[in-house]
Design a protein that fits this description.
Strand order of the largest sheet: 7-6-5-8-9
CATH architecture of the largest domain: 3-Layer(aba) Sandwich
Radius of gyration: 19 Å
Shape: globular
Largest sheet: 5 strands, parallel
Number of helices: 11
CATH class of the largest domain: Alpha Beta
Distance between the termini: 17 Å
Order of helices and strands: HEHEHEHEHEHEEHEHHEHH
Length: 310
Amino acid sequence: MSSSQLSTKHLLGIKYITKEDIELIFKTAVEFKDVINRPIKKVPSLRDVTVANVFFENSTRTRISFELAERRLSADVVNFAASSSSVSKGETLLDTVNNILAMKVDMVVMRHPAPGAHHFLAKHIDANIINAGDGTHEHPTQALLDAFSIQETLGSVEGKNIVIVGDILHSRVALSNIFCLNKLGANVKVCGPSTLIPRHIESLGVTVEHDVRKALEWCDVANVLRIQLERQDIKYIPSLREYAQYFGINKQLLNDINKDIVIMHPGPINRGVEITSDVADSKQSIILDQVENGVAIRMAVLYLLAGKKG
């Protein structure tokens, strides 16, 4: 594999790419970050490439980030919100995508509630597939932008202590982050109520901590996840108020620890639940850097998968 090529035609999950792939995506993202900070933010890298954004679940931030990345690369963009389309009339995933491919689409960015939907698609169609989230399985570009943001802030990911706090059980962000951080040599801990920590998660190479103060005392970076009430079919926590009391990260807690921890959050934030506003908006927070880096990382992924030579 040449150093300017990914080892794969698709981005189905972090599990299926190599450490070298991740490093190449980061290197490319640094170059694109320069582009998006210029007065003219567009490059012609994906001119004549058509990208379809196919979202079977609502996601304003991820979709906008991908769309912005595609337009910055001069791609032609087709947006398809399946929740408001014929899918709700019973059309299958394959029907939907075949119709999109009939429009001569080169790449499909897809979010789907079923884990593994992207693997199914990759077997049946010829376009490059990018997973923008599949059920509670993976969200690879979020993990890439998170790790890239850590590298940018701390100089490297290797050897750093990173804790993921919150609803680990329902989070595709947590799973992708664990795969990505492990590949890059970080030490990873997860922290949350026992009802929101999957059984056997240690088999993924992480340790579990139920005391948020101890987790923060240990870590260099805290990646704080949203409590995903919409994915919880039963009550996993007594109340949001109680969750905030025991697992919420607030300024008082950080002041008590008196250590310069980097605070991250993939968004959208439930302010006052998993994290207070004075933490989210503090100097320790790199939440807005994550948003900016999201566009650069997605530009890098699109560019590299399209196989364009720079």
